[in-house]
Write a structure and sequence with these properties.
This protein has a domain at 345-408: Dna Ligase, domain 1. The chain is 30% helix and 22% strand. The chain has helices spanning 24-32, 35-52, 80-104, 109-112, 118-122, 170-183, 185-190, 199-209, 232-242, 298-303, 321-324, 327-335, 352-360, 386-398; strands at 56-57, 66-67, 71-78, 144-151, 157-163, 220-223, 245-247, 252-255, 258-263, 266-270, 272-275, 308-310, 347-348, 365-369, 378-380, 403-407, 413-418, 421-430, 432-436, 439-442, 447-450, 466-472. InterPro entries: ATP-dep_Glu-Cys_Ligase-2 (IPR051680), CP_ATPgrasp_2 (IPR025841), UCP005522 (IPR016450).
Length: 480
């Protein structure tokens, strides 16, 4: 990372001297609010989160204790101009992702034209052969995407990864905003902040819009693996706020290629399933035979066009980090334009020259599994021990195709509350992009994740990260 300090989103490069234009109200609020008062409000938010049950499980821990994701009281702020630029780039990328997924399960033009190697797609564990030749209702595969962004300076954002399988975290975006409105109402008086509370309505409208052809009053349900799942709070939160039923696999059955929900008043036909169950567990007749989470015959109903699955099976291939490395080419191929949101520079370790470079620079790079998530299976070279580096070196030599590597970026920072006062901490950002039959919708907000340890670049909640509210400022009259 070098000696150059990270870009701070409040102070820019002149930390503590003069805030960036448009950020003066936040800087003044931080200066005038006592540290003890910030701590009091933050603790009040965390008590409320625990009372509401806004928790997650960390798998593999003996305690299996449900934890709240730490919440930071200092918001992260985007100007209207920054958000406009990000929104345009997000829409372009998600449209390309949908075109790509439709192509690889259809004509596979991108393979025939040599843009993406066939084996990275066809031999990918996330490639669902069952989807070959199938077309979902309205031709949409990735209805809900969470695109992880990082920032390195005033004008430069990069896409860190794409989440198109079952992206999570939107409940934290909404609950963080509720906490800020309740505990720091004065911030909304001094800043004109765009609302995020329309997300459940937009999501419901998206689900209704992609119902099978001819269905006028669709019945939508949210399919959850159950209350032991780490994101169960979010599942119940979204179902409740959309006014749809939260169901488990045992609540549904397939009869004559239609899906039915069992109720105390009899069976009700289901038209749209927002599924938060991974592909492998969706249907024991076509995927994992030992799955108790899915619905036997669900894929037959889906392939017959009688039910919509959101997101479609097989979309997880777009999450793969080897596929990610081709995204600038994918965007260009389907849109005819250069990607407005660039990727982080990426070395594909499956390529001999790239592997050689990575092995020679392991102490400087971030190495990731192509199918990894949650901060697991990752090496952060500059902070890794010698034994960790050697362990990754052996793994790379044994299975280079399973890894990609990226430079260690100087991620931007945002002032964050610590025991010793405010201090800069690194952040990333996950906005949520909805694609329905009526087009693309993006709520002006997202999930800001923050690395709470000094100097840490790992923001994942499973690795000790926290969250912040994300303020999108409304456009001022002089900006119009």
């Amino acid at each position: 990372m070098g000696s150059k300090p990270a870009f701070d989103e409040l102070w820019g490069t002149r930390r503590g001297k003069k805030p960036r234009p448009g950020f003066e109200p936040l800087a003044r609020w931080l200066t005038e609010t006592q540290h003890s008062e910030l701590v009091r409000r933050q603790q009040a938010a965390e008590v409320a989160f625990r009372t509401l049950g806004i928790t997650f499980n960390v798998y593999g821990e003996e305690e299996a204790a449900e934890r709240i994701i730490p919440f930071d009281i200092v918001p992260r702020v985007f100007t209207a101009g920054e958000w406009k630029s990000l929104s345009e780039g997000l829409e372009q990328r998600v449209r390309a992702i949908n075109a790509f997924i439709g192509d690889i399960y259809g004509q596979r033009r991108i393979i025939a034209d040599g843009v993406v190697p066939a084996d990275i797609i066809l031999a990918n564990p996330q490639f669902a052969l069952q989807m070959a030749g199938a077309e979902p209702p309205h031709g949409i595969y990735a209805h809900i995407c969470g695109i992880d962004l990082v920032r390195t300076d005033a004008d430069q954002f990069f896409v860190l990864e794409d989440n198109c399988r079952t992206p999570s975290g939107v409940s934290y975006m909404l609950e963080n905003r509720e906490a800020m409105l309740r505990l720091c109402p004065e911030l909304f008086d001094i800043n004109k902040v765009e609302p995020v509370d329309t997300y459940p309505d937009l999501l419901r409208d998206t689900l209704y819009s992609v119902a099978p052809q001819g269905v006028r009053n669709p019945v939508c349900v949210l399919l959850t693996p159950g209350h032991f799942n780490s994101a169960f709070y979010e599942h119940s939160f979204l179902a409740d706020n959309m006014g749809i039923e939260l169901v488990e696999g045992s609540d549904l059955e397939v009869d004559d290629d239609f899906v039915w929900m069992r109720t105390i008043d009899g069976r009700v036909r289901v038209d749209v399933i927002y599924r938060r169950v991974d592909d492998a567990f969706l249907d024991p007749l076509l995927f994992r035979r030992d799955s108790l989470l899915g619905v036997p015959g669900l894929m037959a109903a889906y392939l017959a066009g009688n039910v919509t699955l959101v997101n479609a099976p097989g979309t997880g291939i777009a999450d793969d980090k080897a596929i990610y490395s081709y995204m600038p080419d994918i965007v260009r191929y389907y849109s005819g334009e250069e990607a407005r949101l660039p990727n982080v520079e990426t070395w594909r370790c499956r390529e001999p020259q790239a592997l050689k470079y990575v092995l020679d620079h392991l102490d400087q790079l971030v190495v990731k599994l192509v199918d990894g998530s949650g901060g697991y299976g990752m090496l952060v070279g500059p902070t890794a021990s010698a034994s960790e580096i050697e362990r990754f070196r052996a793994a790379l030599k044994a299975e280079p195709h399973r890894y990609i590597a990226q430079p260690t970026l100087a991620l931007s920072t945002v002032p964050t509350l610590t025991e010793d006062g405010l201090a800069p901490r690194h952040v990333d950002f996950r906005p949520f992009v909805l694609t329905g039959a009526n087009g693309v919708s993006i709520v002006p907000g997202g999930l800001t994740r923050v690395a709470l340890s000094k100097g840490s670049l790992v923001v994942n909640s499973s690795q000790g990260g926290g969250t912040k509210d994300s303020f999108i400022l409304a456009e001022r009259e002089d900006e119009g």
